[in-house]
Specification:
Length: about 350
């Protein structure tokens, strides 16, 4: 197996020069750098990652802590993170916190102890232990998909990358209201998650914009899971005046809601209209095809990597929150038949992305 000394002899440079090229620890003339890279390629030299980390204090690895990796949404986020990391020459260590605060802190500590250069974490509904650990140990971190409260001065404490939540949810409510629905229910996610709070806010804003009153009996929590949504939908349908339209706040809850409707012999959209937050591979093969909000999941993962690497390059810059737009995918579960909404818009559209100087 060729060594660094072999590369140096082949390129006609010193071992120190080879080390500087590999580790970016000192500028090297372009033609010298190319000679070293050519020698590496010709000899088939593979750098010793452990030895390199001792020189640079970097392992070129990223820790990813995301719950429900089996969820198609998070699977696509993972693919985006992996692609972004690989493109920049970073490896990935993955852990599933299971949305349990204590387990979340433990897995993040384990990733940190493996000397990852930084972390990408989707926080749980109670991230206090996580944030305390990250702050105490000054771990470069990007919070993904979910945001946390800001510090006292209003600035975010960590870089945060997420999708828009409130406006897209309001768009679903507005569309159902345009179709004549007056009792529009929401199956919301796990209490405490920022995504849950923001989608509830969007739901209420959509109702207000349509001139509809907010009725707390039409808001049920499905706890971001299929089984929870099945129970929540059943409770909504059991009311004396059940909803005529339903918005589900993630893909897993859409499945649970559909089970509850099926068990009661109800058809979509003939008996009840349905719109969902999260487009997924099966949404287009259901009958009827599901009107949905599509999140840019892979782009979110790739962006989180980019923001983390920018943090590593400039540790002292202010933290920021970056949001990406979602897309309204118009199909037929809402009760439309031709892929054109009542306002005459196309079958899909999206809002602009935004970058915030402070947390929401």
């Amino acid at each position: 197996m060729p060594t660094m000394a072999d590369v140096a002899r082949h390129a006609g440079v010193s071992v120190a020069t080879v080390s500087h090229v590999l580790n970016d620890t000192r500028p090297v003339l372009p033609h010298t750098r190319q000679a070293v890279l050519d020698a590496i390629d010709e000899l088939g030299y593979t750098p010793n990652t452990l030895a390199r980390s001792l020189v640079t204090s970097r392992t070129r690895s990223i820790g990813l802590a995301v719950s429900a990796i089996s969820n198609p949404y998070f699977t696509e986020i993972l693919q985006g993170v992996e692609a972004g990391a690989l493109e920049q020459g970073y490896s990935l260590l993955i852990a599933d916190p299971h949305d349990e605060p204590e387990h979340e802190r433990k897995v993040v500590q384990l990733l940190h102890e493996r000397r990852v250069d930084g972390l990408i974490v989707a926080p749980s509904a109670d991230p206090r232990g996580l944030l305390s650990y990250l702050t105490r140990h000054a771990v470069p971190t990007v919070l993904l998909d979910r945001v946390v409260d800001a510090a006292a001065d209003g600035a975010p404490r960590f870089d945060q990358v997420c999708a828009e939540n409130a406006a897209p949810t309001a768009r679903l409510v507005a569309h159902l209201a345009e179709l004549g629905h007056r009792r529009i229910a929401l199956v919301a996610g796990l209490p405490g998650l920022s995504t849950t709070g923001e989608r509830i806010s969007g739901y209420r804003h959509g109702l207000a914009a349509a001139g509809l009153p907010y009725d707390e009996r039409l808001l049920a929590h499905g706890d971001s899971a299929s089984a929870g949504a099945e129970r929540a939908t059943a409770a909504l349908l059991a009311q004396a005046a059940p909803p005529t339209a339903l918005v589900t706040a993630n893909n897993a809850m859409t499945i649970g809601a559909l089970r509850a409707l099926r068990d009661r012999g109800l058809s979509v959209p003939e008996d009840i209209a349905l719109c969902c937050f999260d487009d997924f591979a099966w949404a287009d093969v259901f009958s009827p095809r599901l009107t949905a909000i599509a999140q840019p999941s892979r782009d979110l993962g790739a962006l989180a990597v980019r923001v983390l690497l920018e943090r590593l390059a400039a540790p002292d810059r202010p933290a920021r929150t970056v949001r990406l737009p979602c897309t309204f995918v118009h199909r037929m579960s809402c009760g439309c038949t031709d892929g054109t909404s009542t306002d005459g818009s196309d079958s899909s559209d999206s809002s602009d992305s935004s970058e915030e100087g402070s947390a929401l």
